[in-house]
Write a structure and sequence with these properties.
Blueprint: H1 2-5, H2 26-58, H3 96-102, E1 106-111, E2 118-123, E3 135-143, E4 147-155, E5 164-167, E6 170-172, E7 175-176, E8 183-189, E9 196-199, E10 202-205, E11 207-213, E12 221-228, E13 231-232, E14 245-249, H4 251-255, H5 259-265, H6 274-281, E15 289-295, E16 300-304, E17 309-310, E18 321-322, E19 331-332, E20 341-343, H7 345-351, E21 353-357, H8 379-390, H9 398-405, H10 411-420, H11 426-435, H12 439-450, H13 461-472, H14 475-482, H15 503-509, H16 513-522, H17 529-542
Parallel strand pairs: 8-18
Antiparallel strand pairs: 1-2, 1-21, 3-4, 4-5, 5-6, 6-15, 7-15, 8-9, 8-14, 9-10, 11-12, 12-13, 15-16, 16-20, 17-19
Helix pairs in contact: 5-6, 11-17, 13-17
């Protein structure tokens, strides 16, 4: 039920690489969609059956909770749930706006035609911390007797070398690939032996690891961690009742003997081309990075890192699956088969070239593996593509790239204003009919229509749009509560995760009967989703104070 509320993030446009770049056909896309749907069907059936047994055993009184009507513009109330609710782990509190905005990242590389240099940019978007996540370093030494070699950029404390930066020969930027490198497996305890679990009908003993944690000014903590062939049992970490056994499988945490070599390799004088950098990256088993690369020769490349499991049919990684031998991995996806791109200097000599990454899905439909389903919606990625593709002669201009780094255009607002200007959608027509009853709302909507869609510091229209859009993201969480899945927080600043940005758009452009029912329930007296969106708009407009609503200052 919950999954049905999520917008499908698998078949989306705006991917990092195009079908042409990966040599994928429409036939490949059709086959990939059919394969994924088959996997989803098997996985859902298995997991639904498992959850049904959990409900019967641990939450027999759990009935579907109804949604409570809210006043216009009011935040949806959250229901506190018991830590023993076996479904709590499904939707552990996750702040969409914090993760998809503050913890996002952008990186790109470009080269204009005409034999000019390639230029790269990288912005990890990490929050400011004390101590800092990064430290600056500049390494310089002599090679070949009289040649000076430089490596400069930032690195993580405790690990040597430059991790994002440049050398005399190459440079690279890093974003997270958002691909799925680990899985939860459901462990079946042996009912005849509490020290064992069952796999393929055989009883296997747990192994145990002791972790001793020294606490400054406090008592030492000793943890005994049961281990299975699928990894450590993380039931306690997920705050679940002990009879429910989940193990996390992450092969890179077990056998990683090469990632440090991959990082150091980036700094070697012998790494002279973008293709050499990609070879270095093949050794990084974790985490999953999305990396644009460029070199002094004018070559551009893109590479992904990470040890990606090759899952069996019926296992996508979206859900925990059975750790009974049925869904053991087929192996690892070879690095050479991960999505990659090379634009040689000779190829970009006449027309230029670029590649950009912003946490969106790397590959389009048709790629033969499924690498995950938690990609960011490509608002930022699409914006990068728009600007880079429209300025081919500027791709080697450092000032141009600095300006792009400071770009404030909102593709989210652009998408919404385009939809709200199309009254062929019945819900949009209803939105405008309701909005017309309130002068303050009409005036603010007129300002949004004349707004240039840039979220500049001090901008008021951007703040109003943000507040309205933020409220539109709340009803899905209310819908989750209605299907008996709760979260452990009453924090009103938290939101849904992957795909939630698109949920309100679906409500306005093609609402399902379920969505319409949710809209009517969310705002008392709402006639449908368009009416709900207008009532929220009016509720914010009535109390909107421009003096305290400056973007980047008050918000």
């Amino acid at each position: 039920q919950v999954t049905a509320l999520f917008i499908n993030q698998t078949n989306i446009t705006g991917t990092i690489l195009t079908p042409e770049q990966l040599d994928l056909s429409e036939a490949d896309a059709v086959a990939a969609r059919a394969r994924e749907e088959n996997d989803f069907s098997i996985e859902r059936d298995l997991y639904d059956g498992y959850l049904a047994s959990l409900r019967a055993k641990y939450n027999p009184q759990g009935a579907s909770r109804g949604m409570k009507a809210q006043s216009a513009g009011a935040p949806a109330k959250r229901k506190e749930t018991s830590s023993c609710d076996p479904l709590t782990f499904l939707l552990k509190e996750f702040n969409l706006l914090d993760f998809n905005v503050h913890h996002a990242s952008n990186s790109w590389a470009g080269r204009a035609a005409g034999g000019v240099p390639a230029v790269g940019a990288s912005d990890p978007h990490l929050a400011i911390n004390v101590p800092s996540v990064w430290y600056w370093s500049h390494l310089e030494w002599t090679v070949g007797g009289d040649q000076t070699f430089d490596a400069a950029g930032v690195g993580l404390p405790g690990l040597p070398g430059v991790h994002i930066g440049k050398t005399t020969n190459t440079s690279w930027g890093i974003t997270m690939s958002m691909t799925d490198l680990s899985d939860l497996f459901i462990i079946t305890p042996d009912p005849t032996n509490p020290n064992n679990y069952l796999v393929n009908g055989s009883s296997i003993p747990y192994s145990y690891r002791t972790e001793v944690i020294s606490v400054k000014g406090g008592d030492t903590i000793t943890l005994t961690i049961p281990e299975t062939i699928y990894g450590p049992v993380v039931t306690e970490a997920l705050n679940l009742p002990q009879p429910i056994q989940f193990a996390i499988y992450a092969d890179f945490l077990r056998n990683d003997t090469s990632s440090l070599d991959g990082l150091l390799c980036l700094n070697y004088p012998t790494t002279t081309t973008a293709m050499d950098v990609r070879d270095c990256l093949s050794n990084i088993r974790s985490p999953g990075f999305s990396i644009p690369i460029e070199d002094v020769h004018g070559n551009i490349a893109y590479s992904m890192t990470g040890l990606h499991p090759h899952r069996r049919a019926g296992h996508t990684g979206m859900y925990p699956t059975m750790g009974n031998g049925s869904f053991d991995y087929l192996g690892e996806i070879p690095f050479v088969e991960l999505p990659t791109l090379t634009i040689l200097a000779s190829q970009s000599e006449l027309s230029g070239g670029y590649v950009s990454a912003a946490n969106q899905k790397t590959y389009p439909d048709g790629y033969k593996y499924s690498l995950g389903y938690d990609f960011c919606y490509p608002y930022r990625g699409s914006r990068l593509h728009e600007v880079l593709s429209e300025n081919p002669t500027q791709l080697s201009n450092v000032t141009f790239h600095m300006k792009l780094q400071r770009d404030t255009h909102s593709n989210i607002a652009a998408q919404w204003m385009q939809i709200l200007n199309d009254i062929s959608y019945p819900e949009v027509a209803q939105f405008h009919q309701t909005l017309a009853s309130n002068a303050a709302a009409v005036a603010l909507y007129s300002r949004l229509q004349n707004w240039d869609l840039n979220m500049r510091i001090g901008n008021v229209e951007g703040t109003f749009f943000w507040r309205w859009w933020r409220e539109l993201l709340r009803p899905p969480m209310d819908a989750i509560n209605a299907v008996n899945v709760g979260v452990d927080s009453d924090d009103q600043s938290t939101y849904w995760s992957s795909g939630q940005e698109q949920f309100p758009i679906y409500e306005i452009t093609r609402p399902t009967p379920t969505m319409t029912a949710q809209c009517k329930s969310y705002i008392a007296g709402a006639a449908g989703c368009g009416d709900m969106a207008a009532k929220i708009f009016i509720g914010i407009a009535n109390g909107f104070d421009e003096a305290s609503s400056r973007w980047g200052i008050d918000y």
